[in-house]
TrEMBL record:
<dbReference type="InterPro" id="IPR036868">
    <property type="entry name" value="TusA-like_sf"/>
</dbReference>
<feature type="domain" description="UPF0033">
    <location>
        <begin position="7"/>
        <end position="31"/>
    </location>
</feature>
<protein>
    <submittedName>
        <fullName>Sulfurtransferase TusA family protein</fullName>
    </submittedName>
</protein>
<dbReference type="Pfam" id="PF01206">
    <property type="entry name" value="TusA"/>
</dbReference>
<dbReference type="InterPro" id="IPR001455">
    <property type="entry name" value="TusA-like"/>
</dbReference>
<comment type="similarity">
    <text>Belongs to the sulfur carrier protein TusA family.</text>
</comment>
């Protein structure tokens, strides 16, 4: 998977992972993939809901050594 950009939101609490994700998404072209790294456990629900409400597609999610990694395609 070709990731266009990575957002490092580790150590940030809600709503900052969403704020950083939204800003990065605004800079991408439709169809490009953004990867988000966060340690906020609430981000799974938050990013899933935000992607759905803003027309983006959450491609996948994994947890690796306390870091949650999301890949999202811009709608």
């Amino acid at each position: 998977m070709n990731v266009a950009r990575v957002v490092d939101a580790k150590g940030l609490a809600c709503p900052m992972p969403i704020v950083k994700t939204k800003k990065a998404m605004n800079e991408l072209e439709s169809g490009q993939v953004l990867e988000i790294h966060t340690t906020d456990k609430g981000a799974k629900n938050d990013l899933t809901a935000w992607a759905k409400s803003s027309g983006h597609e959450l491609l996948d999610y994994e947890e690796e050594a306390e870091v949650l990694k999301f890949r999202m395609k811009k709608g």
